[in-house]
Recover the amino acids of this structure.
C-alpha cells in the first residue's frame, strides 16, 4: 500500500509534521539537508508523541570532560517527555544506545508529494 | 602456602584495617611536621557527633591486643586472630583512616607529609613482614600534583595494589583530581574508595549513629555516580575502582537508574560514551561487607540484576565491630564456582599485582 501524506512545501527543513499511515501515528521529519524521513510517532520508551518534541542538534561524543560540541542541528529528534535523542539521519537510532531505534517508514517524493509505502 | 578458609576456599580479604599510633609515625616524619604532633598535640579532625556505640567502640571487643594495645595495631595478633585462623591467601590493608590525609579540610602540606610517613610505616611494619599482606597507597588528594608524586614514589612497590581515597565530602571524579588516576594507572594501581566520615544527611549528620551507619551506601553511590558521569573510565581505560565497605546491594538499583538517566540526559555528559551499567561492569568491584543477612535466593537475584558474578569480592573489615565472618556471613550452599569467585578470583582479577 501507499499513501500521499503531505506536500514537501508543507514542512520546512528542521520541522516535523504528524500524520497517519496504515492506521498508525507517523511523524514526518524534514532534516537540515532538506530530505524527508518518516518514523513512528510513538517514543519507544513510554509512547510520547514525538512530533511534539524538537528537531534539534546534540553534543557529539568527546574525549574531553567539559567539552560540548553541539552538532547535527535539525537532525536530532528529541522526545517531548524524557528528552531521548534519535538521529533521523541514522535510521532513528538512539544516541545513548544505538541498539535501540525508532520504527522507520519508507517514502518517496514525486511531484512535490510525500508518499509513504510498504 | 596457599591459604584456605574453613570452607576450603582460597580467601582474599579485600578490607583489613591496620592501625597506626601517632607515636609510631614520628620516625617517618621530618621536621617541622614531627613537632606539631609531639609539641603541639596534633590529632586528626573529627566530625561525627557520636561514637560507634558497639561494645568496644569501632572495634570488635575481642580484637584488642592482649597487652592492651588497640585492635589492628599488632601484626602477630592479627596473624593469629585473622590470617592464620581463617587461612587467608591474601589480605588487602586499607588503613585505619586516622590519620586520613585526604580527609583533612586544610593544611595539605601536613597531610602530604602524613601520607608519606604512613606509606613508609605500612611497608616496614606490615607489607614487608607478611607475604600475605598487600597495601594501599595513602595520599593527600587535595593537592593532586603532590599526590601523584607520592604515587610515583611508592606506587611501583610490588605490595602496593591500590590508591586509597576516602569517601567524605569531596567527589573525586572532577578533572582536577585526574593526575591521581593518571599516576595510578601508570603503576597498575587500582583506586580503592572507603568511607571515612561522610555527611549523609544533606551535608550534615543525622540524629543517631544508626541512621548514619545505615546510610553509608548513599555516600558510596555519590562517588560511583560521580566517577562514571565524570568520564573517568572513558579517559583512563586501564583504571578500576573498588568500593570498600559500602556493600553491593545498592549496585543493581544504581546501574538501572544510571542507565535510565543516561538515555534521557546523555547530552549533558557527552564524554560518557557507553551505558553506565557497562562501565560499572568493566571497571568496578564492590566489597561484600557489611552483608545484609541475605538468603541465597536474594543474593542470586542481586547478582542476576548486576548482570555479572564478578563484581563482588569478600571482605571482613577486621578488626571493626561490624566484621563479616568468612564462614558465616554469606548464605550457605552457594555453588562452588560462585564461592571461588567471591572469596578470591574476583579480587585476583581486579588487582593485577595479585595475579
Amino acid at each position: 500500500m501507499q499513501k500521499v501524506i503531505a506536500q514537501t512545501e508543507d514542512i520546512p527543513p528542521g520541522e516535523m509534521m504528524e500524520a497517519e499511515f496504515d492506521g498508525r501515528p507517523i511523524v514526518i521529519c524534514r532534516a537540515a539537508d532538506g530530505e524527508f524521513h518518516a518514523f513512528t510517532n510513538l517514543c519507544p520508551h513510554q509512547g510520547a508523541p514525538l512530533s511534539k518534541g524538537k528537531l534539534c542538534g546534540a553534543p557529539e561524543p568527546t574525549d574531553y570532560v567539559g567539552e560540548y560540541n553541539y552538532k547535527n542541528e535539525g537532525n536530532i529528534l528529541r522526545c517531548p517527555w524524557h528528552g531521548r535523542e534519535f538521529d533521523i539521519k541514522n535510521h532513528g537510532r538512539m544516541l545513548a544506545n544505538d541498539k535501540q531505534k525508532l520504527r522507520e517508514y519508507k517514502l518517496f517524493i514525486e511531484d512535490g508529494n510525500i508518499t509513504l509505502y510498504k | 602456602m596457599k591459604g584456605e578458609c574453613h570452607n576450603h576456599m582460597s580467601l582474599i580479604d579485600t578490607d583489613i584495617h591496620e592501625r597506626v599510633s601517632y607515636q609510631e609515625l614520628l620516625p617517618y616524619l621530618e621536621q617541622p611536621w614531627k613537632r606539631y604532633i609531639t609539641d603541639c598535640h596534633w590529632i586528626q579532625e573529627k566530625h561525627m557527633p557520636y561514637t560507634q556505640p558497639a561494645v568496644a567502640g569501632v572495634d570488635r571487643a575481642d580484637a584488642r591486643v592482649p597487652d592492651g594495645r588497640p585492635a589492628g595495631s599488632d601484626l602477630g595478633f592479627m596473624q593469629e586472630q585473622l590470617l592464620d585462623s581463617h587461612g587467608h591467601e591474601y589480605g588487602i590493608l586499607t588503613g585505619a583512616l586516622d590519620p586520613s590525609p585526604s580527609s583533612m579540610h586544610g593544611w595539605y602540606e601536613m597531610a602530604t607529609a602524613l601520607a608519606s610517613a604512613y606509606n613508609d610505616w605500612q611497608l616496614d611494619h606490615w607489607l614487608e613482614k607478611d607475604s600475605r599482606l598487600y597495601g594501599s597507597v595513602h595520599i593527600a588528594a587535595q593537592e593532586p600534583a603532590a599526590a601523584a608524586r607520592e604515587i610515583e614514589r611508592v606506587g611501583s612497590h610490588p605490595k602496593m595494589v591500590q590508591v586509597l581515597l576516602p569517601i567524605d565530602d569531596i567527589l573525586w571524579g572532577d578533572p582536577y583530581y585526574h593526575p591521581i588516576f593518571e599516576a595510578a594507572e601508570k603503576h597498575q594501581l587500582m583506586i580503592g574508595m572507603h568511607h571515612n566520615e561522610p555527611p549523609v544527611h544533606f551535608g550534615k549528620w543525622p540524629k543517631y549513629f544508626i541512621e548514619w551507619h545505615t546510610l553509608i551506601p548513599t555516600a558510596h553511590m555519590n562517588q560511583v555516580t560521580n566517577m562514571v558521569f565524570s568520564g573517568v573510565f572513558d579517559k583512563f581505560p586501564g583504571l578500576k575502582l573498588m568500593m570498600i565497605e559500602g556493600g553491593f546491594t545498592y549496585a543493581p538499583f544504581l546501574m538501572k537508574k544510571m542507565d535510565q538517566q543516561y538515555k534521557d540526559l546523555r547530552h549533558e555528559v557527552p564524554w560518557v560514551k557507553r551505558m553506565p551499567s557497562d562501565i560499572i561492569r568493566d571497571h568496578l568491584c564492590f566489597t561484600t561487607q557489611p552483608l545484609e543477612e541475605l538468603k541465597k535466593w536474594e543474593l542470586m537475584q542481586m547478582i542476576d540484576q548486576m548482570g555479572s558474578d564478578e563484581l563482588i569480592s569478600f571482605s571482613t573489615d577486621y578488626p571493626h565491630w561490624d566484621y563479616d565472618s568468612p564462614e558465616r556471613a554469606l548464605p550457605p550452599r552457594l555453588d562452588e564456582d560462585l564461592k571461588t569467585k567471591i572469596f578470591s578470583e574476583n579480587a585476583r582479577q581486579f588487582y593485577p599485582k595479585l595475579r
User: Anything to note?
Assistant: Chain B touches chain A through 15 residues (CB under 8 Å). The radius of gyration of chain B is 19 Å.
